Amino acid sequence: MDAIALLKDLVSIDSIFPNEQNIAKYVERKLTELDFKVKKIAITQGRYNIVGERGSEGRPILFYGHLDTVPAYGKWESNPHSLVENGDRLIGLGAFDMKSGVAAILKACETKTNRTIKVVFAVDEENISEGAHAIVKSGFLKDVDVGISTESPDPLGPKFGPQVVSLGRRGRCVIEIGVPGLSAHGANPELGKSAISDAARLVIELEKLNLQENLLLPKPTHFIRKIVGESTSLSIPDRVVIELDVHMVPPDTPQTVLEAVNQIIEKCYSDKKISSPNGVKITARLKQRKTPYGTPYVTDKDNTHVKRISEIIQGKYGKVHYNYGMSVADENIFAAAGVPMIVVGPSGANEHSANEWVSKKSYLELIEVLKAFIES
C-alpha cells in the first residue's frame, strides 16, 4: 500500500485509549500479510498488544510503536480522524504521535530479509504503559539485540526528524504526601492545627528539591501537580494531600526521589517550620498505580546498532543530531528490561493539541532510514 494511504487508514481509526481494539486488528492483518508470525499479548479483556516475528538469522532487532492516541483536544480545523494534506503537513489525530511511526515500521518491513525481526505495537502508552509492561512480562523481548522506536522524541526530534538519534529519556514518578492537621472549631483556631497551613510551608520547601543531574540527559524537573484539602462545616482542616510530579535522570530513581522528599520533610520538623499534631507526622510514598514508574535510561553511543543507524543517516543527510528526551515513554520500560533503545522518528508538531501534524517529507525519509537499517 502507498505510504500516504496507509497513514490515512491508521488516522481514520479511532484509537483513543483505552479503545485500541480496531487499530490492533488492522495492524495484525498488515503484519500477517508481511509474513510475520503474529500473536496478541492481552492486558485486559478485549484489549491487547500486537507482536510479530519473522526471519531466522541473528539476534532479533525490535521495531516498536504505540497504537493509542490521546483525545482530540482543542478546536480542530478539520476532522481529527481524516488525514488532511496541506503542503508538507499531514494533519490528523495521532499523525505525529505516533501513527506515522507505526506506518513507517509497516512500510519498512516490506523489505525482504532473513534477519530476525520482531515488531511490537503496544497499547496504553498515553496512559500508564500497561501494554509495555505486559510485553516485558511475556518474555517477548528476552533475546532482542536492540530496539528501534519511531516516536519522535523532544526537544530536537520535531525539528530535524530522522536526522535525530535519541539515546535516552528522563524517568518520572509521582510522590503522594499526606499532611495531618488537628481539627477544632473555626471560632477557636488556636485549639487546632491547620493542615493547609503546614502544607503551604512544605510546598515552599519542596520547590527547593535538589535532584541529581546527568551530563547527557536534560536537567531534572519537578512541580506540584495537586493539593487537596478543605474545611468542612466550621472546622480547622485536618488533612491535605499533595502530589509532587518529578522527571528524574540517572543516577536518581523513584526510590531515591522519595528518600530526598522524606529528608525535606524531616528537615521541616527539625527546623521547627512544621510541628506534628498529637505526634502524627507527614507521610510520603510513591503514588500507587497499576504499573511501576518508568526509570531514566541512557543508551551507549558506542553501541554497534547506534553506530550503524548513525552511518545510514549521515550517508543520507550529511549529519546526525544526538538527542535525549525530556519525557518518559514505553522505551523506558523496555530499557529497564535490558533492551538497548534507539529512537528515530519524523518531524511534526501539535501532539496532544489541536491540528496535530507530521511532515510528509520526514515521514517518507524515516521509511527509507528504517529500510536501510534492515538491509544493512
UniProtKB/TrEMBL annotation:
<comment type="similarity">
    <text>Belongs to the peptidase M20A family.</text>
</comment>
<dbReference type="GO" id="GO:0046872">
    <property type="term" value="F:metal ion binding"/>
</dbReference>
<keyword id="KW-0479">Metal-binding</keyword>
<protein>
    <submittedName>
        <fullName>[LysW]-lysine/[LysW]-ornithine hydrolase</fullName>
        <ecNumber>3.5.1.-</ecNumber>
    </submittedName>
</protein>
<keyword id="KW-0862">Zinc</keyword>
<dbReference type="Pfam" id="PF07687">
    <property type="entry name" value="M20_dimer"/>
</dbReference>
<dbReference type="GO" id="GO:0016787">
    <property type="term" value="F:hydrolase activity"/>
</dbReference>
<dbReference type="InterPro" id="IPR036264">
    <property type="entry name" value="Bact_exopeptidase_dim_dom"/>
</dbReference>
<dbReference type="InterPro" id="IPR050072">
    <property type="entry name" value="Peptidase_M20A"/>
</dbReference>
<dbReference type="InterPro" id="IPR002933">
    <property type="entry name" value="Peptidase_M20"/>
</dbReference>
<feature type="domain" description="Peptidase M20 dimerisation">
    <location>
        <begin position="168"/>
        <end position="269"/>
    </location>
</feature>
<dbReference type="InterPro" id="IPR011650">
    <property type="entry name" value="Peptidase_M20_dimer"/>
</dbReference>
<dbReference type="InterPro" id="IPR001261">
    <property type="entry name" value="ArgE/DapE_CS"/>
</dbReference>
<dbReference type="Pfam" id="PF01546">
    <property type="entry name" value="Peptidase_M20"/>
</dbReference>
<keyword id="KW-0378">Hydrolase</keyword>
